[in-house]
Protein 1
Amino acid sequence: GIKPRPYLVVAGCLVSRYGDELVKSLPEVDLWLGVHEEGTLPAKMAALLGTYPGLKRPTGTRVPSTKPSYAYLKIGEGCNHRCRFCTIPSIRGRLSSRPVSPLLEEARAILDLGISELVLVAQDVTSYGRDLNMRHGLESLLSGLAKLPGLRWLRLMYLYPAGLSPRTLRFLADLGPPLLPYFDLPLQHVHPDMLSAMGRPFAKDPRIVIDRIRHHFAKPSLRTSLIVGFPGERPHHFRTLCEFTRKARFNHLGVFMYSQEAGTAAAKLPGQVGPQTKRRRRDTLMMLQAQISAEDLARWQDQDMDVLVDRSSPEWPGLHEGRVWFQAPEVDGLTYVSGEGVRPGRMVKARIEETKTYDLVALV
């Protein structure tokens, strides 16, 4: 075996949810940490290693594990909503926002490393600060972040539609760069019967928030995720979802087949949909979205755009993977870019030479 023997530490959601079962089935693991136990890691590792219990983290902020171009900034944990298909509240608890000051400090340290893009994440970004008695918490945080030197792109993920009020959208529009007009809206469905059955915490007609965004932003990029095969979803519900997708024309769309998660209210609902029907509905929506995406990307042909370079491509020397402003890391398409001065971490101006279904090809 390996000498000295490494210690095996397992952390995260599965530990919080299935801790006792995991401990019994994986005795080789030395340390288990649930989602709320991160702060105990130094002391517990010190105990394992037999060193001073006051073992501290390295000086400074965290070391980003992402590409040299972007970093995630987690602004909160947990969720106050009770969607019937979701396990997050039972695992991660209620909304717990991080205060503005340490978030700004962490953001400054990340930007000092030469990173150009911050991606704000939480289970519910638009509810940020409510648990801290902040009336307009997200506005306060974004106002501080937008002023930080070195920040080229500021992206928001996981925006609940109910939180995108006219006031919030006016603020976002007025804030301008570095904030990107990119809206990640986890709609999950559009038919009122399904939204009600899912326990979704927003108005019955998601079209309202989409129209509201497009009223404040001339050319926003819209992303959403949809669930097919939720218990009780009938053919007419799915047809409504398809028609909505055709008309809304999301720039990015992901489709998930409903899964019966133990411990959720939806797992016990009648009208469970069969796996073949779920797969067929997912494939139908994704074929529809593929056509929409290809048509949308075609309009960027021969345009000069800023490309943030993430990494060298393993496909061949000189080719790099990057993104333009409407491509979020890890979830959207890529821009393959090559040319003089292209290297990971840099923002380069490149011409779009080719458009594909989900990706772009550019040349400096």
Protein 2
Amino acid sequence: MFRAAAITTRRSSQTLLHHRTSNIPPPPLHQNPNFLHRQFCSTPSSSSAKEAEIRKYIGYTALLVGSAIATYYSFPFPADAKHKPAQFFKYAPLPEDLHSISNWSGTHEVQTRVFLQPENLQELEKIVHDANEKKQRIRPVGSGLSPNGIGLLRAGMVNLALMDKILEVDREKKTVKVQAGIRVQELVDGIKEHGLTLQNFASIREQQIGGIVQVGAHGTGASLPPMDEQIISMKLVTPAKGTIEVSKEKNPELFYLARCGLGALGVVAEVTIQCVEKHELVEHTFVSNIDEIKKNHKKWLNENKHIKYLWIPYTDTVVVVKCNPVSKWRGPPKFKPKYTKDEALQQLRELYVDLLKKYRNYS
């Protein structure tokens, strides 16, 4: 009886202890032995995320400032350059000594403070020598007819437009010696009185002879050489060897490389060109299509001295232009046009009138 009462009392004490312990609150986090483990395994707090974001933007700012400083000091300004401070949100005029140079088609442009135009060989030699002494890059540029920007350089350019004289004409050998800055049209007009002309040249004649030779320009005709193959000898102004003359007899290996050297082997100062007798050409222009050209291309190349194709984009139409010398015995061919001048221009007049009526209200 007493044993049963003791057991009952013990069970009641255990039950009371259970109820009391269940009502005790859990210990604080810093007294919990698993606290450190849980904190290490949890995600970063918001403060550390903000610090990472701040460090990221500080890095971007440092990169931007460094790039700006590098760009500023890489621009080849001389020590005595006239700097005009820009004003924020206001237009700052360009310095007076800053030249804007673009190619002929206007697709490439560069600004430079070094754009030199010598008037004679001695001035050109001094320019190349000084640039070499100062370790300064300089690039020869002509009329800029190349569609790319190969002749443009911010560090500095030299242009021979003022060295444009015909130095010597040999009527018997049919050769002409010129300064490299003379333009093709000026050269053709100048040797015309001597009964000479160039073997081949492009339809655009604004190029300087030095430039048209260095880029390997050409005209039309399968049997006609490009401009660089018409050169007999050249005078180059180089930074290391000074002024040298190259030809098939004098330093032939360098001569063949320098004929189409893109200005990389020196500045072309003078050129001797093999010419031909002056002659007249008869031009025949007609409209064709791609299939007909594929069929007759080889035949037309053999039959005509000059031939070129002008494809009209987004169509099958091709304008064919043939040019052949006039025979000294037969004279120019007698050609009767299919249409009179008024008939040939009638469709163009009608188109102009229609466009005028259609778009007059938009002006």
Protein 3
Amino acid sequence: MLVVVLKAAIYYGPKQLEIKDVDVPKVGEGEILVKVRAVGLCPTDVRIYFFGSSSVKPPIILGHEFAGEVVEIGGKVSGLEIGDKVNVPADAFCGRCKMCRIGCENLCEDPLSFGYNIDGAYAEYVKIPKRFLSRGVIFHLPDNISFEEATFVEPVACSINGVRKAGVEAGKSVVIIGDGPMGLIQVQLSRLFGADSIILIGLHDWKLQLAKKLGADYIINALHSDPVEEVLNLTDGRGADSVVVTIGVPEVIEQGLKMAGKNGFVNIFGGSRKGSAITIDPNVLHYYEICFTGSSGYTFNDYEFAYKLVVKRKINVKKLISHKFKLSELFDAINQFQNKEKSLKIIIEPTGE
């Protein structure tokens, strides 16, 4: 390993992001160094860039949906070789706190999280701390899976948690609000989970048409009709069994509640800006016995399941990639992300290969 300096995007605070040279991190016992070949531009990272987050400890390198190849291995590491293609989860949970002990690892009280409290993958190289290896969550990638495809394991894992929290299962009617990558992943998951009817609501005709190809039974453009009325019409006035809201806009969340039927589930999947608030009629929850919940992140079991779905191509992620940028073009990528009419999933290639 002859490289001693790498390029990285360092976050200092809201709208303070610099691409600069930094020292390659030294690898200690039980650690590895990965050359980042692809990293997904996550909406959460964009939100952090513009508005900040109390969970992020700057200065720090952002980026957590990544895949690459092992270029350096520390002492007492087994099962890995130089050149191995790998995918690494965004988080390593502690395994000791109350949440981990009861199986809610995604709510871990002491996680190590790339781009939050350890340097992430908007960089040419990223160091993988010992906890990730000791927890056994370094995933080997088969030769036929591209690095770009592998960046989707984390979003798919989060989506698995999301659709499960929404009660999606065989025979159920499902509404997914949002035609971004997460919504389109959840369309595919709902189909795999055996949903009887899948309705996707969005704002962009080309994304809605893609949703049809990926498994949606019905599509609704919320710019052209009232989505609540449309859902009620499509469900014979009963409302949906499961509603997943991938967009953290209060008005949209309120609409989602109005789409749920008796004994239904409504899951807030998308994060909202700090200070956001919604108005709900408690009688709707009470008399209809609606389960109104949220989901965040994934468990290791979710992640392993997502890995299997991606490498077996049970989820079509290639269709979701709209743009690729070099690390030096990260600001262009963020600007493109803002153009929802033209963009879907954006991939950053730090090493430009």
